[in-house]
Amino acid sequence: METLEIIGALVTLLGSIFIFLGGLGIVRMPDLFNRIQAGTKASTLGTILSLFGLAIINEAWIWKLLVIIFFVLITNPVSSNVISRAAHFRGIKMTDKTVADLLVDKSNKPGEE
Q1: For residue 20, what are the contacts with CB-CB under 8 A and spacing of at least 6?
Q2: Helix (H, G, I), strand (E, B), or coil: what is residue 92?
Q3: Roughly how many angstroms between the first and final C-alpha of the chain, as a whole number?
Q4: CA nearest 25: which of 45, 39, 46, 41?
Q5: What pLDDT digit, counting tens, does each position of 22-50 carry?
Q6: Is 50 in contact with 19 (CB distance < 8 Å)?
Q7: Are 112 and 89 contacting, i.e. CB atoms less than 8 angstroms apart?
């Protein structure tokens, strides 16, 4: 194997480990909001590392993979924020260990500020 292939494989493996740890975090966290946070952070980083490793291995795909990385970097945090706000609006309870609820005083209804 070439040196770049080994480096790409290691980066892809590291991304897979982050994705696995994100899945483990989803199972282990106490409430929906912590699960979303754990899953989003780990899956975003894991996906980016996995795709970056593939770009190292196959240089012909680099621009396509960079577009996908950009798409994941933009959509993952936005979608998890929207899901979390919708869950908060619906009244999903937080764990008793939650110290502060920053949305409790804000209106979550569309069109109101």
Answers
A1: 46
A2: coil
A3: 59
A4: 39
A5: 999 899 998 888 899 888 999 999 999 99
A6: yes
A7: no
Quote the CA–CA distance of 94 and 101 in Å, as a whole number.
9
Q: Residue 68: count other Cβ atoms within 10 Å of its Cβ.
A: 16
Q: At what angle do helices 62-90 and 32-57 cross, to 10 degrees?
A: 180
Quote the pTM value. Answer: 0.80
Please say whether the beta carbons of 50 and 16 come within 8 A: yes
Tens-digit pLDDT profile for residues 57-112:
999 999 999 999 999 999 999 999 999 899 888 988 888 877 777 777 665 555 55
